[in-house]
């Protein structure tokens, strides 16, 4: 049922009043059930303050960013279960990393926005959309410690952000600012779509791409740093210039937290023109601080680990002349107005996912410690579950606990005989369809001379909705396969 005083009407009224700072807190709480919500007093107070301001009471200068919750206000296990009751209960969903999750309260807020747009699109477009996206950008700016909101643009996903940065690199080759054969560096375990984007934009434009050969399993950051330095040395051979380094913050498959701060520092020392950090998994999963990391460009999805609906990501572009001339690949009426404005309107589409960031942050702040508390508990649980599975199967983790965040790689029994990438997909499907377990699997080719080694690793995620039973279900499924003498070559193509 659409509320009689919809939150977007509140939002638009406050924006029109010239006092947009009132909209964010009221967006956050105006439609929570007042009968059982301890924020009722705050909600009523905010409405009163808003009314006073609209009637000329101009002594109000600011509102608190968020209420301080007492221990009795923290989200309960039953409320968490209710927030994710739309998940398929028959599936152990230990793959938050691929598509993320969105709680019911945020979905409802999104649906209100969708209906508001459909009810009167012109009003929504002219009076609500731009201001709403600015609110979300402001929240993101605070979360990532950017210096200015103009450094933050909202796009659909990290792949779109990569295209924006790499498109700029292609133009530099085409316009003669970069020489043919100049170099872009990327990790060997870069995300597949980003690799394709580098091929499409950099290689095709005349650039040379050098991959950092990453070890796996990996034992320390020093191994990664050593290989990164070797790649930089290769890149500078014959007087070539390294124009761009593309560095993952958390690699996707296999999953490892990369020491981005150290690698960015090395890039500065070695004269790399610009650094783009592909951090698709980072925000809500590990520490994200633009001033600390120091990259020129940084992107992360909010629909993976920050509870937003698909699809929304941010692209941070450091406020310097070298980071200008970025444009959205979809050219619309706002072309030339700056990337943040261009990205806020790329034609008629559903922008609701980009407007609910404040609501997603409200959900996060219902947990003890907010986002920091969630990150720590998810990390600790991911490590504990990974260690439990490795012990049950007699295998090992893909990296030390300090090199994972809310995901970790766990070796599968060698007897499963995973021998190629096709086997990983077939086994993943088999686990989903026959055991109700959803988990990605990675093939690690044996090195020369290796016999009987682990060739398959599962990437398990831990998010707030997961339970111990999700992982024991996975453990028992694999144990049954081993007990039955199963091998991947028994699965049909």
Automatic annotation (TrEMBL):
Residue ranges crossing the lipid bilayer per the database entry: none
Q: Which InterPro entries match?
A: Aminotrans_V_dom, PyrdxlP-dep_Trfase, PyrdxlP-dep_Trfase_major
List the keywords (alphabetical).
Pyridoxal phosphate
Domain Aminotransferase class V residue range list? 132-320
Keyword ATP-binding attributed = no
Name under which the protein is recorded: Aminotransferase class V domain-containing protein
Organism equals Juglans regia (English walnut)
């Amino acid at each position: 049922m659409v509320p009689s005083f919809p939150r977007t009407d509140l939002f638009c009224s406050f924006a029109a009043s010239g006092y947009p700072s009132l909209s964010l807190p009221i967006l956050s709480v105006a439609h929570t059930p007042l009968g059982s919500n301890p924020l009722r007093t705050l909600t009523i107070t905010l409405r009163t303050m808003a009314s006073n301001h609209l009637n000329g009471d101009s002594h109000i200068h600011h509102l608190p960013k968020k209420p301080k919750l007492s221990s009795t206000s923290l989200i309960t296990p039953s409320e968490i279960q209710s927030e994710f009751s739309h998940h398929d209960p028959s599936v152990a969903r230990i793959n938050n990393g691929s598509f993320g999750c969105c709680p019911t309260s945020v979905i409802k807020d999104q649906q209100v926005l969708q209906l508001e747009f459909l009810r009167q699109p012109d009003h929504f477009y002219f009076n609500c959309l731009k201001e709403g996206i600015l609110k979300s950008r402001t929240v993101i700016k605070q979360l990532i410690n950017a210096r200015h909101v103009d450094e933050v643009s909202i796009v659909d996903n990290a792949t779109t952000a990569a295209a924006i940065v790499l498109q700029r690199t292609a133009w530099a080759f085409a316009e003669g600012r970069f020489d043919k054969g100049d170099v872009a560096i990327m990790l060997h375990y870069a995300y597949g779509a980003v690799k394709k984007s580098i091929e499409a934009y950099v290689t095709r434009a005349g650039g040379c791409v050098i991959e950092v050969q990453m070890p796996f399993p990996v034992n320390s950051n020093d191994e990664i740093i050593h290989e990164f330095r070797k790649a930089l040395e290769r890149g500078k051979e014959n007087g070539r210039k390294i124009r761009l380094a593309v560095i993952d913050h958390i690699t996707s498959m296999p999953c490892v937290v990369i020491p981005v701060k150290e690698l960015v520092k090395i890039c500065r020392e070695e004269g790399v023109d610009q650094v783009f950090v592909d951090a698709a998994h980072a925000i809500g999963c590990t520490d994200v601080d633009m001033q600390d990391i120091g990259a020129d460009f940084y992107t992360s999805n909010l629909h993976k680990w920050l509870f937003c609906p698909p699809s929304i990501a941010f692209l941070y572009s450091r406020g310097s002349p070298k980071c200008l001339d970025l444009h959205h690949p979809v050219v619309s009426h706002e072309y030339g107005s700056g990337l943040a404005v261009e990205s806020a309107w790329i034609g008629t589409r559903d922008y609701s996912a980009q407007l609910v960031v404040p609501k997603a942050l409200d959900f996060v702040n219902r947990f003890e410690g907010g986002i920091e508390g969630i990150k720590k508990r998810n990390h600790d649980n991911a490590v504990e579950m990974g260690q439990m599975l490795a012990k049950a199967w007699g295998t090992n983790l893909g990296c030390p606990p300090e090199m994972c965040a809310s995901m970790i790689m766990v070796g599968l029994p060698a007897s499963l005989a995973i021998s190629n990438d096709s086997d990983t997909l077939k086994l993943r499907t088999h686990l989903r369809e026959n055991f109700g377990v959803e988990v990605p699997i990675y093939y690690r080719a044996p090195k020369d001379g290796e016999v009987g080694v682990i060739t398959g690793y599962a990437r398990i995620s831990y998010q707030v909705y997961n339970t111990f039973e999700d992982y024991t279900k996975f453990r028992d499924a694999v144990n049954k396969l081993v007990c039955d003498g199963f091998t991947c070559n028994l699965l049909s193509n």
